Structure formats: structure tokens, C-alpha cells
Amino acid sequence: MFGRRKRLLERILVVEDEPLVAFDNEYFLSEESYVVVGTVDCVAEAVAIIASGTPIDLVLTDIALADGNGVDVARAARDVGIHVLFVTGDCPADARPHAHGWLAKPYRQRDLALAIRAIDELISGSEPSRLPDGLTLFVQA
Q: Who contacts 28 (Cβ-Cβ below 8 Å, separation ≥6)?
């Protein structure tokens, strides 16, 4: 009756080309009871997973990837109704229409969890209860 609200964002695709960051995120998200549907390091693999129809609720993507730009990943995700959070050092203005927000690197794992929770609250129609340091939400997303 007074339990926690069910999360809307359960299944996450991690797109990160820094191996240690990717591993840490995958491990941490699994420990937080998220389902990591994949961890990839390039645009081509991310877009292929998105196009495959694999159920994904949220894509966490870096902008600067070895084979291109994470904005292309965000576009592909948003085109099929998948939510996006950029996790990157700098987020250019032209990327912002394709995501719900941007968590600036470097970030603490606790801040990643809070950022995902804030996006979850936002898409469920609530005001986010707590915003971590380094998170910028984009109103238009």
C-alpha cells in the first residue's frame, strides 16, 4: 500500500567507450536492480541494438564515441520512443533536443542513480524529488 512507485525505467542500454566507466556503470546499475540490456562502445552497435527491437527503456550515452557521435544514438533511440540521458563531459546545444538530460562527467555512481530516478519521475509526470550535482534537465525533451 505504501510501497515505492514502480519504476518506468528498468531496461538500460549503456553506450560508453571508456572501458572502466562502462564496466562500473554496468555493475552498479545491475546492483541497483536495473536490467542492463547491453553495454557497447560504438554508435554502430548501439543503433543496431535499438533497431533490433530489443526492449529498452533508457539509453545512457556518451557523446564522443570512437566511431562517431552519441547524438546519432540518441536520435535513433528517440525515433522509436526510447528515453535518453547523455553522460558526457560536455553536451553541445544541438544534442539537447534528443535527450531528457545530461549528467556531466565525472560523476559519482550515486549521482547516476539519482539522475535516472529524476528522469523516471519526470516522464511519469512528477517533479523530480532530488537532482544530483552535474545533472541538467532539458525541458523540451
A: 109, 112, 113
Residue 6 has pLDDT above 90, yes or no: no
Consecutive H or E run containing 14: strand 11-15
Give the residue among 104, 88, 86, 83 at the shortest CA–CA distance from 96.
86
Grouping H, G, I as helix, E, B as strand and the rest as coil, residue 87 is strand
Over residues 71-106, the pLDDT tens digits come to: 999 999 999 999 999 999 999 999 999 999 999 999
Which strand (E) or helix (H) includes residue 19? helix 19-31
Strands of 54-100, DSSP E: 58-61, 64-65, 68-69, 83-88
Identify the three-state secondary structure at position 109: helix
Q: State pTM to two decimals.
A: 0.93
Phi then psi for residue 131, to 5 deg, are -105, 130
**Positive/negative CA dihedral, 59, 65, 67, 69:** positive
CA distances in angstroms from 43 to 71, 104, 107, 123, listed in the order given: 9, 20, 22, 25
